[in-house]
Structures are given as structure tokens and as C-alpha cells.
Design a protein that fits this description.
5 helices; about 80% helix; mainly alpha; about 120 residues
Length: about 120
């Protein structure tokens, strides 16, 4: 596909961010919980981390191959939307710590970059 290289930067950034943030609770749960607050369902945090790693790896693979298709766009935009909404909603409901708003800000930037990419594709 022509003109994909600039999107590869977004794929590398989001894929790397997801891989790092997803693996953190799996590698060192104690430090993760110290920063993000105590959780009641450790197993759920670890499963979500693993799923975030999967999406991150998909995006990194697409970046490495310099290939973008509808599935990659859906994974990138959809995951950013879901994580952004989860961060904002559950901070507002006081279920998770306000530190998650930092992740919400990152997800908002990623979503904005996806929107710019899609707008320029039209």
C-alpha cells in the first residue's frame, strides 16, 4: 500500500506502549499496584495485561511489515477507544486511581493520530 511509512511510526509507538504497559503487571505486579493502586481482582489485571500485549504485538508486527489493513486500523483505534473510555469512566466512578488519567491522555493522543491517518486516507 502506498504512503504507509508515516503510519508505521504510529504503529511502533502504540505497539511499543501497549507491549510495555501490558507486560508490567505480569513481570512485577507489586510495582504496578504501587503506582496504580490496590486491586481486588489480580487475575483480571493480568489477563487484561496479556490482551494488551497481544494487541501491541499485532501493531508492532504490522509496523515491522510496513503493512496496514482494516484489521490493523480496527485494532489500533478500537483498543485506544476502549482503554480511553475505561480509564475515564472508572476514574470518575472512583473504581480506579486518578493515575489512569495519564493513560487516558496517551490513548486520546493515539486516537487523534489514528483519526488524522484515516482523514488523510479519504
Amino acid at each position: 500500500m502506498e504512503g504507509i511509512y508515516p503510519i508505521a511510526l504510529l504503529l511502533w509507538a502504540q505497539g511499543g506502549y501497549f507491549a510495555l504497559t501490558g507486560i508490567w503487571p505480569l513481570l512485577h505486579y507489586r510495582s504496578f499496584e504501587k503506582v496504580t493502586g490496590r486491586k481486588t481482582d489480580v487475575w483480571l489485571v493480568k489477563i487484561l495485561g496479556a490482551l494488551i500485549i497481544v494487541v501491541g504485538c499485532l501493531l508492532l508486527f504490522a509496523a515491522w511489515r510496513n503493512e496496514v489493513n482494516g484489521y490493523v486500523v480496527m485494532a489500533g483505534t478500537g483498543s485506544a477507544v476502549v482503554l480511553l473510555l475505561a480509564d475515564v469512566i472508572y476514574v470518575a466512578r472512583k473504581v480506579i486511581a486518578p493515575v489512569y488519567l495519564a493513560d487516558a491522555a496517551v490513548e486520546l493522543v493515539l486516537l487523534g493520530l489514528w483519526i488524522l491517518y484515516l482523514y488523510n486516507m479519504l
